[in-house]
């Protein structure tokens, strides 16, 4: 779930606010609440809250509470998926099939992720643009981060690596490709432009991340030849050094985006914007305390569902007959990214490619330069030996994806074939992982078997 | 030490020059090339007042000459390292000291050599001068490579040349763009991408040759054929000829047909305080030639010390020979150019920065490397273009990152930070490759050579 940073001067809105009515609001707008790419993308999934029903309730605190609930739960078109959350929890306690638990948890994560981004946006109204931007940037990929941390804790390092690579691939090829493809078909005879500077910044950072993975891969080969034993310690040390470098780059990227080169990332407002589907708000709809409480609560539920997902991934793999790596690389990211994906496509339809690129590229950059090195550092603290060494297949898919996207986006224009190519690349990579039964699956099964056996033995005492 | 060729018509200089005597020369054209301007940023104006008090005419001429040569650069403080290094060799100081002092001594010498070739170019005209700059510009890397070849330390040759390319592409360019971007935070920073494209294309050709060698070796050995060295050597030599052809074409492109692409654009408000821009030579042609030969000889001596003591330094400091060859040697060797590139990035003259760093990388990749292979061929040494997987992978990634960074013709500090961090990652990687098999091969080679020498002497 990507976020852009929080921009300044939503000038068009400020201009439209007539006279005194916006006077009190004018100060806040002046401080600057520009519509970032992420905000606008999420807002495409919002519905205008119809408060007529609630306003008939007489008791005032109850009415406020109900309005709050309506805003939180019914404020998105994805609310149909919300029942999956209690169903998943029920499935856990009533011992439904583990594959059902896996599927329901995945479905439940989708609306929760979207609501978390909505809540961080609301909080950002109160905290100002910079802190809001940082909050968006950090919490934007909350789902991927939490899944990764739980998988680390359960020792499933391959799942972590695969799911993060899969997220990057999904954002770069699937989300971007499908958006450009559908947007190109919808705007067949219009000129489709975007600002390539933003794409260049993201591409550069993604290449730095890919370089670190490639160095790790080659390092392992270099150490392996000459018939030396595979010493894990230098690989780990190099991974940790590279993770620190990647985090440095991410901090510089945030500084660049939020402080010095803000205007590069501001979404350009056009005059004839149709405000029917897009709910753009100048003021928050829920209070600060309430937003914080909901945010904490939703994060807890996300953590719960993530734990189910990570715990049942092998069972689902056995039950459905597909490898764990395929589920981690392809399925998990697709479902996790669904909300953003929808938003990106909608904005491509409206020929607002800067926002589409902001969402997809920004998400990929965040995961590659923030979540991945953070996982390595957290694993370091937890004493788990996670390194940046993806396997050959994942690393080469990653570097090819970045190259394809870099070449696609390098001239600042788009058409549907530019979207079809990355999309077909993603299909090819998906097919590759579908038929690939990695040894890691067997290792994971052994790990899981060992863990359950150990747990059973420990319980017996 | 790169050069970008020698350009025509320094219009600004010709326009501002009231003297008629120099007019005919400037009409021939002595444009300020990127390399010349970069080096000149390290020059100091010669203060001739002290020398002019000396009465004897001949002595005064010699002293002026000496002052111009030795004190004409801000790097003159490093000059004492040269006699110290020579003393260290004869007085048998620790070999590590010899290594360090020789490295330090090479830095000002490289800068002076480029100064001397610039002076000679005033006399020989732009084309020959450009060729001279292009060839002598990377004299230090070339001489170090030849000495290492002579001693059979083929891995050191390969590593130091790859390290030079990586250093120019990522470290020099990255740090210049980064610092320049911070210094010019709110200005528009643009450069002409055509020059960058030409260099990138040639670098990719060089990288292709290395990748072909690597893949060739892999393809041959995986088919359970014995690792036969001769096809690999044959392919390396063929590729070297191809690379040299490309380099000749590049020189022709740069000096004859597309000169205007490489001319540094002069701006009206050029501040001539720090950059000593000269219209005429400050020393005579025979003097310059004599000094050039002398300095090249000293460079040769110091290079021999460096190549000879590299293993001792590696053992003493506890870091691998490949790390020293890939990271340390190029950083020290490139220091003068590096400083110049940063200074011009501060002044928002990115064309010059790019000319220095990219041009240097292209020269090493397309001239020094294939030349080493050809010279090894003549000397009967089996050097090929096959770098290890790690070096080749780093090289191709570095070229890609640089190509993508420079492809839109603008710059900001994040564009410099990314290559810089890439260089840090690559440096960390080579740091951790502490016990590579190459070390053991080099030690074995060194041991064999000294043993056979001992046997022959006996």
Automatic annotation (TrEMBL), chain A:
Mode of membrane association: Multi-pass membrane protein
Sequence ranges of Gly residues compositional bias: 17-26
GO CC, alphabetical: plant-type vacuole membrane
InterPro entries for the chain: CaH_exchang, CAX-like, NaCa_Exmemb, NCX_ion-bd_dom_sf
Molecular function GO labels: calcium:proton antiporter activity
Transmembrane segments: 78-103, 123-152, 164-185, 205-223, 235-256, 285-310, 322-349, 355-380, 392-410, 416-436
Localisation per UniProt entry: Vacuole membrane
Principal place of residence: membrane
GO biological process, one term: intracellular calcium ion homeostasis
Alphabetic keyword roster: Antiport, Calcium, Calcium transport, Ion transport, Membrane, Transmembrane, Transmembrane helix, Transport, Vacuole
Region (Disordered): 13-41
Residue span, Sodium/calcium exchanger membrane region domain: 99-258, 291-429
Superkingdom of this protein's organism: Eukaryota
Family designation: Belongs to the Ca(2+):cation antiporter (CaCA) (TC 2.A.19) family. Cation/proton exchanger (CAX) subfamily.
Function: Vacuolar cation/proton exchanger (CAX). Translocates Ca(2+) and other metal ions into vacuoles using the proton gradient formed by H(+)-ATPase and H(+)-pyrophosphatase.
Protein name per UniProt: Vacuolar cation/proton exchanger
Species name: Ensete ventricosum (Abyssinian banana)
UniProtKB/TrEMBL annotation, chain B:
Cell compartments where the protein resides: Vacuole membrane
Protein topology in the membrane: Multi-pass membrane protein
TM region positions: 75-100, 120-149, 161-182, 202-221, 233-253, 288-307, 319-346, 352-377, 389-407, 413-433
Cellular compartments per GO CC: plant-type vacuole membrane
Pfam families in the record: Na_Ca_ex
Residues covered by the Sodium/calcium exchanger membrane region domain: 96-255, 288-426
One record GO biological process: intracellular calcium ion homeostasis
Residue stretches in coiled coil: none
Keywords linked to the UniProt accession: Antiport, Calcium, Calcium transport, Ion transport, Membrane, Transmembrane, Transmembrane helix, Transport, Vacuole
Region Disordered, annotated ranges: 11-41
Similarity remark: Belongs to the Ca(2+):cation antiporter (CaCA) (TC 2.A.19) family. Cation/proton exchanger (CAX) subfamily.
PANTHER family for this protein: VACUOLAR CALCIUM ION TRANSPORTER, VACUOLAR CATION_PROTON EXCHANGER 3
Main function: Vacuolar cation/proton exchanger (CAX). Translocates Ca(2+) and other metal ions into vacuoles using the proton gradient formed by H(+)-ATPase and H(+)-pyrophosphatase.
Protein name in the entry: Vacuolar cation/proton exchanger
Organism of provenance: Ensete ventricosum
Lineage: Eukaryota, Viridiplantae, Streptophyta, Embryophyta, Tracheophyta
């Amino acid at each position: 779930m990507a976020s852009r940073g929080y921009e300044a001067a939503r000038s068009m809105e400020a201009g439209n606010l007539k006279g005194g009515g916006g006077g009190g609001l004018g100060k806040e707008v002046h401080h600057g609440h520009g519509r970032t790419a992420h905000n606008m993308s999420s807002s495409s999934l919002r519905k205008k809250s119809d408060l007529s029903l609630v306003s008939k309730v007489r008791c005032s605190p109850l009415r406020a509470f109900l309005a709050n609930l309506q805003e939180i739960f019914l404020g998105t078109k994805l609310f149909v998926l919300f029942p999956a959350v209690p169903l998943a929890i029920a499935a856990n306690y009533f011992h439904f099939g583990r594959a059902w638990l896996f599927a329901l948890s995945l479905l439940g994560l989708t609306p929760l992720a979207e609501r978390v981004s909505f809540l961080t946006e609301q909080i950002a109204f109160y905290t100002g643009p910079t802190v809001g931007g940082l909050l968006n940037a950090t919490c934007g990929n909350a789902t991927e981060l939490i899944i990764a941390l739980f998988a680390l804790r359960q020792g499933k390092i391959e799942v972590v690596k695969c799911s993060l690579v899969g997220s990057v691939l999904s954002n770069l090829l699937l989300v971007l490709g499908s958006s450009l493809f559908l947007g190109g078909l919808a705007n067949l005879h219009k000129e489709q432009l975007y600002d390539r500077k933003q794409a260049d910044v993201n591409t550069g950072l993604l290449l730095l991340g890919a370089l670190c993975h490639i160095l790790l891969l080659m390092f392992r080969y270099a150490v392996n030849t000459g018939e030396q034993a595979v010493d894990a310690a230098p690989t780990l040390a190099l991974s940790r050094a590279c993770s620190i470098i990647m985090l440095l780059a991410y901090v510089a990227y945030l500084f660049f985006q939020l402080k010095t080169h803000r205007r590069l990332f501001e979404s350009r407002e056009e005059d004839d914007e149709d405000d029917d589907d897009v709910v753009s708000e100048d003021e928050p709809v829920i209070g600060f305390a309430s937003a914080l409480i909901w945010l904490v609560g939703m994060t807890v539920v996300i953590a719960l569902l993530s734990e189910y997902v990570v715990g049942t991934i092998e069972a689902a793999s056995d039950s459905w007959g597909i490898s764990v790596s395929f589920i981690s690389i392809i399925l998990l990211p697709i479902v996790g990214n669904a909300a953003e994906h929808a938003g990106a496509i909608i904005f491509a339809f409206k020929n607002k490619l800067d926002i589409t690129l902001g969402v997809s590229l920004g998400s990929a950059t965040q995961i590659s330069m923030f979540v991945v090195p953070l996982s390595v550092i957290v694993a370091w603290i937890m004493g788990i030996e996670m390194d940046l060494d993806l396997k050959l297949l994942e690393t080469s898919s990653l570097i090819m994806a970045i190259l394809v996207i870099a070449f696609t986006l390098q001239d600042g224009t788009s058409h549907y074939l530019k979207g079809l190519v990355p999309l077909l690349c993603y299909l090819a990579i998906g097919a590759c992982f579908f038929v690939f039964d990695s040894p890691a699956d067997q290792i994971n099964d052994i790990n899981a078997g060992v863990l359950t056996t150990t747990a059973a033995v420990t319980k017996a005492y």
